[in-house]
């Protein structure tokens, strides 16, 4: 019987010939990622060893990655102390893939994993962050887990309870129109299948539109697959995956893409015609409350955010700068830009992208997650409306339950910054 | 699960203290701004921190033993933050939902929070419930709702007392 990409990956990682949706397997983990919540993972890890007489030692320090990104630099003594505790653990255990608060190698975990070449097609990637689904863009099975489950992975190198998910095949064909991109595709999909439409399932992306997307766009599709409830999003590895890993992630060793069998069994198939798509907006307070920009145009906004693990890549910043160059954002709008990593920050600086954004009135922040989940900078006032390229608009997400959040692409964010109201980038702003 | 432990007398009675809708996110259960607090012993104070109804229950001491939160579908969607489970566990709550987000349900099993999937559940605040392995009986209305059992591995983890003892056992077996 044919297998989907994820079934093939889980069969390999579990030492099996084949697996089928619904079975429970214990796959070996290739990359185990955490951020500041490693502080909790350490706590749970130590508890596992209590009373065993065994020395608490992680199963393989070379497969663990820890990246500080949620509150950087630390906003409080409590966070700083948590980070210190993690730093000491990392040194003690010999964990090498540690990205501290540094301008040379720091950034948001999901960007760091991709740009550092830590993820390959066919890998099992587990992360203590729900947006770990991002790494499916490189042909991996990548899922978010809790801190206690990560402690178990650190101890055993295995995920002890993976119920092989059924796979939804999403086929996207047609040429994207101007100012329409990966963010609009995924928002449209979530709106169509709902915030729980892929619960306990995997979304496997196919079609000519997906094949022609650069990895930066595929990362957006898989990043937000979790907003439809998906265990993982996945784009089967191809020539573009090889190009990205060689040219942008410095990978020199073998890369072996995994394709689905022609007779793989899918839960369902969803077809999307990209050519007819408008820029999409997720309206308050649900990611699946998605409307075309035409029906939301004119909503007044107070704060615009470009950045995060979803849309803080060089292409995103360049797209915004292309719209804002030699122009000014509206007087009554604050615009914050969070590049996804310091590598991206430096490249955007070198290309003059950051200067263009600043001269338009944007404030460039250091790479980090804080603003997206309301824990570090960029807080909203009571009654504020934010328009953001991030990934969640739940009530209170950005730290204030008396504010509203709309989600959009970098192009819509930039066009709206000029006018101070939600605007369509296609209509000559 | 623990609800079946009292085989001797009448089954224990639970009380519905709050009824919620669909898609309750972990941001709602445990707002991001408290995420620097990680220890299960410290998270309960921030449970539903922005939810006036739940805050009133805590303030007025109306969370007696065997309190139940009942929710619609996709409870615990969103972030993987484990605090969203440990904060409810700390109040000794049971959660019954039509369905759960995947990571939340796994975290609940890992930490031993009783999370009951009951696709047809429809009850009111204040109702008295009897919860068994296969059904939830609303003793106030007399209606009975079928429970979707946990898959065997999750069940085994719950019975082991959560993922920490379960992993500890596996670790010792390897020796």
Tally the helices of chain A: what do you get? 14
Q: Count up the domains of chain A.
A: 2
Determine the mean pLDDT of chain B: 94
Structural class of chain A: alpha/beta
Helix percent of chain B reads: 25-40%
As laid out across the biggest beta sheet of chain A, the strand order is 4-3-2-5-6
Described by its quaternary structure, the protein is heterodimer
Question: Brief description of this entry?
Answer:
The complex is a heterodimer of chains A (429) and B (175). Chain A has 429 residues and is α/β, with parallel strands linked by helices.
Structural commentary:
- The complex is a heterodimer of chains A (429) and B (175).
- Chain A is of the alpha/beta class and 429 residues long.
- Chain A folds into two domains: 5-272, Aconitase, domain 3, CATH 3.30.499; 281-419, Aconitase, domain 3, CATH 3.30.499.10.
- Chain A has helices at 5-13, 38-49, 77-93, 109-115, 147-156, 182-193, 208-211, 215-223, 239-248, 308-311, 314-324, 342-350, 353-360, 410-419, and strands at 24-25, 31-34, 64-67, 97-99, 124-127, 141-144, 162-163, 166-173, 201-206, 232-234, 268-273, 280-282, 290-292, 303-307, 334-338, 363-364, 385-388, 404-407.
- In chain A, helix 11 (314-324) packs across helix 13.
- The longest helix of chain A is centred in the N-terminal third of the chain and has 17 residues, at 77-93.
- Chain B has one domain (11-148): Aconitase, domain 4, CATH 3.20.19.
- Chain B is 28% helix and 17% strand.
- Chain B is built from six helices and seven strands; from the N terminus they run βααβαβαββββαα.
- Chain B has helices at 26-29, 52-59, 83-89, 102-111, 152-159, 163-174, and strands at 14-19, 67-71, 94-97, 114-117, 128-131, 135-138, 144-146.
- The model of chain B is unreliable at 1-7 (pLDDT under 50).
- Chains A and B meet through helix 2, helix 3 and helix 5 of A and helix 4, helix 5 and helix 6 of B.
């Amino acid at each position: 019987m044919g297998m989907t990409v994820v079934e093939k990956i889980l069969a390999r990682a579990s030492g099996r010939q084949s697996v089928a949706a619904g079975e429970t397997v214990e796959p070996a983990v290739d990359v185990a990622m955490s951020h500041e919540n490693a502080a909790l993972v350490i706590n749970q890890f130590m508890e596992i060893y209590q009373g065993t007489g065994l020395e608490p030692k992680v199963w393989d320090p070379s497969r663990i990655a820890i990246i500080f990104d949620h509150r950087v630099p630390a906003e409080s003594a409590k966070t700083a102390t948590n980070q210190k505790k993690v730093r000491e653990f990392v040194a003690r255990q010999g964990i090498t893939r540690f990205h501290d608060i540094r301008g040379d190698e720091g950034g948001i975990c999901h960007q760091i994993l991709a740009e550092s070449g830590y993820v390959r097609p066919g890998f099992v990637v587990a992360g203590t962050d729900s947006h770990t689904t991002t790494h499916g863009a490189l042909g991996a099975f990548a899922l978010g887990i809790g801190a206690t489950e990560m402690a178990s992975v650190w101890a055993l190198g295995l995920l002890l309870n993976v119920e092989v998910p059924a796979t939804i095949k999403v086929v996207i064909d047609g040429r994207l129109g101007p100012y329409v991109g990966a963010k609009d595709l995924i928002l449209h999909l979530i709106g169509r299948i709902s915030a729980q439409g892929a619960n306990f399932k995997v979304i496997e992306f196919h079609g000519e539109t997906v094949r022609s997307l650069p990895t930066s766009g595929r990362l957006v599709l898989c990043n937000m697959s979790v907003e439809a409830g998906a265990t993982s999003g996945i784009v089967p590895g191809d020539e573009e995956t090889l190009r990205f890993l060689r040219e942008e992630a410095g990978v020199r060793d073998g890369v072996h893409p995994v394709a689905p069998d022609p007779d793989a069994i899918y839960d369902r198939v969803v077809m999307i015609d990209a050519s007819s798509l408008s820029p999409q907006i997720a309206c308050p307070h649900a990611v699946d409350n998605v409307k075309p920009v035409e029906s939301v145009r004119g909503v007044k906004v107070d704060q615009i955010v470009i950045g995060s693990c979803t849309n803080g890549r060089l292409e995103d910043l360049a797209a915004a700068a292309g719209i804002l160059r030699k122009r000014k954002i509206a007087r009554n709008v604050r615009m914050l830009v969070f590049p996804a990593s310091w590598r991206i920050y430096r490249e955007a600086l070198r290309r003059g992208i950051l200067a263009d954004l600043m001269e338009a009135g944007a404030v460039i922040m250091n790479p980090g997650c804080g603003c997206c989940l309301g824990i570090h900078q960029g807080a909203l006032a009571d009654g504020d409306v934010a328009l953001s390229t991030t990934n969640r608009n739940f009530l209170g997400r950005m730290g204030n339950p008396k504010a509203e959040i709309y989600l959009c692409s970098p192009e819509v964010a930039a066009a709206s910054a000029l006018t101070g109201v939600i605007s369509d980038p296609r209509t000559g702003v | 699960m623990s609800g079946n432990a009292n085989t001797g007398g009448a089954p224990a009675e639970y009380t519905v203290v709050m009824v919620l809708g669909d898609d309750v996110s972990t941001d709602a259960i445990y707002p991001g701004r408290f995420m620097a607090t990680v220890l299960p012993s410290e998270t309960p104070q921030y449970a539903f921190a922005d939810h006036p109804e739940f805050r009133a229950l805590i303030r007025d001491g109306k969370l007696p033993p065997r309190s139940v939160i009942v929710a619609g579908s996709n409870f615990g969607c969103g972030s993987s933050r484990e605090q969203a489970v440990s904060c409810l566990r700390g109040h000794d709550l049971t959660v019954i939902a039509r369905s759960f987000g995947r990571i939340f349900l796994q975290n609940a099993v890992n930490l031993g929070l009783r999370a009951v999937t009951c696709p047809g559940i429809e009850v009111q605040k204040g109702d008295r419930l009897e919860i068994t392995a296969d059904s939830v009986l609303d003793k106030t209305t007399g209606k009975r709702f079928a429970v979707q059992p946990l898959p065997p591995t999750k069940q085994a983890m719950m019975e082991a007392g959560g993922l920490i003892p379960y992993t500890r056992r596996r670790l010792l077996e390897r020796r």
